[in-house]
Amino acid sequence: MIHAYAATEAGSALQPFEYDPGPLAPQDVELDVIYCGICHSDLSVIDNEWGMSQYPLVPGHEVVGRVSQVGSAVTHLEPGQVAGLGWHAGYCNSCAHCHAGDQNLCATATATIIGHHGGFADKVRAAANSVVPIPDGVDLKSAGPLFCGGITVFNPLVQYNLQPTSKVAVIGIGGLGHLALMFLNAWGCEVTAFTSSEAKKEEALKLGAHHTLNSRDEDEIAAAAGRFDLIISTVNVKLDWNLYLSTLNARGRLHFVGATLEPLDIGVFNLLMAQRQISGSPVGSPATIAKMLDFANLHDIQPVIEEYKMSEVNKALDHLRGGKAHYRVVLTNE
């Protein structure tokens, strides 16, 4: 039996829950969960904000665990190995995206916490090709958030062939944004943080930003017209996107990794006259996750975390729900 914590309905507190996963499939692995990060997406799924949650629902998609069992067809993982599991717990393995190594774009990929039990548990199962070994040297306690928050902001750097001479701004210095500052600085970019408080300004500079702009000062933002090659938005709220578009250089890109639910109000001439672009991306493929882990290891990039025991999961969720997390919350089974 697997012992977990589950929501029984939208918005409910998590309760102890156990289930029998059955025989291990040939292509699957089982992980003994050591740590599991809490992502804002866990809250969204618990609350059924996206209208696709299935209950009982075991959240947790930033898993660091030790391989305890491998299926008969698994060759790249072995018992005792430390590995991680992110947003996806399996892929169709037959579509064009899967064949091209873009499994994160697979239309029928299995989400780790939607129709599948996640990592707020003592064990979790997933398809072996969605589980990525963690290199020696990576801090395991803080590694979990890399498997969702980290890869979410790292993926566009790879997808759009970002140059180390690029000037990049980040909107939202929180769970995603603080990691974006670290990755961009290590990538070699000139990094600007849009921030709304003096305290966040000082911290953004320590995390890797070279400059800051006051996101509540429209005149200050307007004065940055044409400055950036890329802006990464990590927020889920509506902003004056036309104002931010104006700070892009010709052929600049406004890229969304935060799940903004309201439609974008964009003036087309803002795009046409300077060939600007708007895009978005999800988490990365297993290969890109592996590349991110190597990059984080090389540059000693570690998410800023707060720890809670797995048994304190509801307290930890309330902490995140109240906007008090600094910057990622990690549950531990140790």
Protein model, in words:
Helix 4 (149-159) packs across helix 5. The strands form four sheets. Strands 3, 4, 5, 8, 9, 16 and 17 form a seven-stranded mixed β-sheet that branches. The chain has helices spanning 40-46, 96-99, 140-143, 149-159, 177-187, 198-207, 218-222, 241-245, 268-272, 286-298, 313-321; strands at 2-6, 15-19, 28-38, 63-70, 82-85, 88-90, 110-111, 123-127, 131-133, 167-171, 190-195, 211-214, 228-233, 248-256, 277-280, 305-309, 328-332. The protein is globular and about 60 Å long. The chain folds into two domains: 2-148 and 283-332, Quinone Oxidoreductase, Chain A, domain 1, CATH 3.90.180; 151-280, 3-Layer(aba) Sandwich (Rossmann fold). The protein is an alpha/beta fold and 334 residues long. Strand 13, helix 8 (241-245) and strand 14 (248-256) form a beta-alpha-beta unit.
List the helices and strands and how they pair.
Elements: E1 2-6, E2 15-19, E3 28-38, H1 40-46, E4 63-70, E5 82-85, E6 88-90, H2 96-99, E7 110-111, E8 123-127, E9 131-133, H3 140-143, H4 149-159, E10 167-171, H5 177-187, E11 190-195, H6 198-207, E12 211-214, H7 218-222, E13 228-233, H8 241-245, E14 248-256, H9 268-272, E15 277-280, H10 286-298, E16 305-309, H11 313-321, E17 328-332
Parallel strand pairs: 10-11, 10-13, 11-12, 13-14, 14-15, 16-17
Antiparallel strand pairs: 1-2, 3-4, 3-8, 3-17, 4-5, 5-9, 6-7
Helix pairs in contact: 4-5
